[in-house]
Design goal:
Blueprint lengths: L1 H27 L7 H17 L11 H24 L9 H20 L1
Helix pairs in contact: 1-2, 1-4, 2-3, 3-4
The structure holds protoporphyrin IX containing FE.
């Protein structure tokens, strides 16, 4: 059961890697836009995060204040990505700067909360 949980954590951090990796690639290639891949990573993080939020295996202690905060930040990230998709120019080359930086910041903040809290 513990190995199974570890596997779900692995999938969960892969979701983070997909979203943050897509964002960092956009930053590094100076195409500061939001992409569907960032969305995909978010859904992977959400699905695996909700599975991890269930108290299993028996006896595990979870901090629901921390998890609730991560959920709120994930929802804000999803909203920001949605607005960015609509607001970026039709060529999809550039999203509004505030939206682009918010996506990276919210994603990184959630990882920081997960690791440092
Ligand atoms: C963009 C969104 C998210 C990111 C970047 C993220 C990132 C991470 C990372 C890096 C870890 C590994 C930390 C460690 O094991 O030391 C982790 C663990 C975990 N995450 Fe997330 N997460 C996100 C969203 C969520 C959501 C929405 C939930 C559930 C509501 C959630 C629940 C958990 C749980 C239960 C763990 C296992 C370790 C723990 O209890 O802290 N995560 N997350």
């Amino acid at each position: 059961m513990e190995t199974l949980r570890d596997l779900v954590v692995l999938i969960h951090i892969t979701g983070f890697a997909i979203t943050f990796g897509a964002w960092f690639t956009a930053l590094a290639t100076r195409r500061k836009r939001v992409t569907r891949i960032m969305d995909v990573g978010l859904w992977v993080s959400l699905a695996s995060g909700l599975i991890l939020a269930a108290p299993w295996p028996e006896g595990i202690e979870l901090d629901y204040l921390k998890l609730g905060l991560k959920f709120v930040i994930l929802a804000a990230l999803g909203g920001t990505l949605g607005v960015g998709m609509h607001k970026q120019d039709k060529t999809g080359v550039r999203a509004p700067a505030g939206i682009f930086w918010a996506v990276g910041g919210l994603c990184f903040t959630n990882a920081a909360i997960a690791v440092l809290w």
